[in-house]
Design a protein that fits this description.
four-stranded mixed sheet; 12 helices
Amino acid sequence: MDAETFSRQVLYAPLRPWLERGVSTLDELNAGAHRLGLRSGGGQPLQFVSPGQVGAVGYEAQAYRHGQVETRPDNWHDLFGAYVWLSFPRAKAAMNRRHWQALQLESTSRRGPARDALTQFDECGVVVLSTDMTLWQGIRAHRWRETFADRRAAVAEHLRFLVFGHGSYDALRAPFVGLCGKAVCFEVASLPDDVPAQTTLADELLADLFETTEDLSPRHWQPLPLLGIPGATTDNEEAGYYDDVRQFRPARTSDNPDSG
């Protein structure tokens, strides 16, 4: 699958402006970063650099202090990471700043819940925008068929799903049963008309969450089977698709502690 093919898949929509240009070189990524005025969490001009140029201080520290984001050439995982920086610049800067702040408080031998949450969302995060929170409540309760099949028209009207995690973008090149994201939902008064405007709104809301949530931890994220999102695959047009417990596990209950 090439970049042009990715751009036609619904879950790649936030990155479409970049994917439609083909596979970007470091020079092209840096031209985009310069044009958009991207800054790291520490306020440094952002620069994508090849491996070997980053010192021993670590990825997040190097980005925060020097604005350098190590990006391997010919590597989809890193390229998607760069595209996310270009598409969600405020959230990525806030995430980088929060990583740096957490690093100052942690011992070298133990990661805290904030960095665990940031790392999870960086890899497989999904932002959900909603004008009807009963749909989100259905997702949180693992009422997959009810929400995505029975209320499919309402989902199309009231929810927008914007993939943030660059690891998820990489995995979606060859999607598999059980592919799951970690989602957070924001209630909004109305949904912007187009994907770029939705992405900008998601970027602002996510940045604010990273900056203001003191007790940030992985419990803030909701598991979300990516292939269950309407439009992600033609297979999910059939209601029975959501009966497959390999992907759509029931909510955990006291009678069924292994589920969820």
